Amino acid sequence: MASPSVVVLDYGSGNLRSAERAVERAGAAVTLTSDLDLAMDADGLVVPGVGAFAACMAGLRSVRGERAIGRRLAGGRPVLGICVGMQILFERGIEHGVETEGCGEWPGVVERLQAPIVPHMGWNTVEVPDGSRLFAGIEDERFYFVHSYGVRDWTLVTNDRTPDSHQPRVTWAETGAAPGEGDRFVAAVENGPLCATQFHPEKSGDAGAELLRNWVTSL
């Protein structure tokens, strides 16, 4: 059986090679490209991202990446966002008083974390919802974060008629050494074909590798 094909979208954001290698190790045949047709045709699309929200959105638009994301999701085709690649999936981001429009796949705003120490950097546990496929077998593991901004409020409303497979499953994490000491934020989302993580699975050791395998085997 052939390995699933995955495109890691090259839109000028950093950390592309490590994401490419990690997804390859998870069992996919990976292409690193900005080609829109290849991004559309692959079994899965990975949207990485590091740095500022506005810069990532500018880079994404320069290769029409937001169109590839939107068209894939309209056809029920899987997309995985990582770090700022997750943040840009939301409606907007606010950094240093500057508001930037995101892809708008989910409602919500990316804003500075309200924590005593920022950036939030290092290994942290996450609160995984029941029924998660992305975190199957690794619900109690730690993952590697490095970010100063995040989504602090999940606002997407669904109704009882939404199929269970498309009900969003939101994983949370919290800055600080103990519960209640820091700021709570969205650590990952599973929403039908669209998944995303605020942490870096490619830097999260065995747990991150298993998460990527879970995603690749779902393609």
UniProtKB/TrEMBL annotation:
Its main location: cytoplasm. Pfam families: GATase. The active site is at 83 (nucleophile), 200, 202. The keyword Amino-acid biosynthesis applies. Keywords: Amino-acid biosynthesis, Cytoplasm, Glutamine amidotransferase, Histidine biosynthesis, Hydrolase, Lyase. Pathway: Amino-acid biosynthesis; L-histidine biosynthesis; L-histidine from 5-phospho-alpha-D-ribose 1-diphosphate: step 5/9. It is found in: Cytoplasm. Its EC number is 4.3.2.10, 3.5.1.2. Residues 7-216 form the Glutamine amidotransferase domain. The keyword Transmembrane does not apply. It catalyses: L-glutamine + H2O = L-glutamate + NH4(+); 5-[(5-phospho-1-deoxy-D-ribulos-1-ylimino)methylamino]-1-(5-phospho-beta-D-ribosyl)imidazole-4-carboxamide + L-glutamine = D-erythro-1-(imidazol-4-yl)glycerol 3-phosphate + 5-amino-1-(5-phospho-beta-D-ribosyl)imidazole-4-carboxamide + L-glutamate + H(+). InterPro entries: Class_I_gatase-like (IPR029062), GATASE (IPR017926), Imidazole-glycPsynth_HisH (IPR010139). One of its GO terms (molecular function) is lyase activity. Heterodimer of HisH and HisF. NCBIfam families: IMP_synth_hisH. IGPS catalyzes the conversion of PRFAR and glutamine to IGP, AICAR and glutamate. The HisH subunit catalyzes the hydrolysis of glutamine to glutamate and ammonia as part of the synthesis of IGP and AICAR. The resulting ammonia molecule is channeled to the active site of HisF. This is Imidazole glycerol phosphate synthase subunit HisH. It comes from Nocardioides bizhenqiangii. The lineage of its organism: Bacteria, Bacillati, Actinomycetota, Actinomycetes, Propionibacteriales. The gene is hisH.
